[in-house]
Amino acid sequence: MSTAVDDELWSAIGDPTRRRMIDLLLSDGQGTATTLSAHLPITRQAVTKHLAVLDRVGLVRSAPSGREKRYHVDEAQLARAVAQLNAVGELWDARLRRIKTLAETIQRARHTESKPENNPENDPHA
Question: Mean pLDDT throughout 109-116?
Answer without folding.
Answer: 82
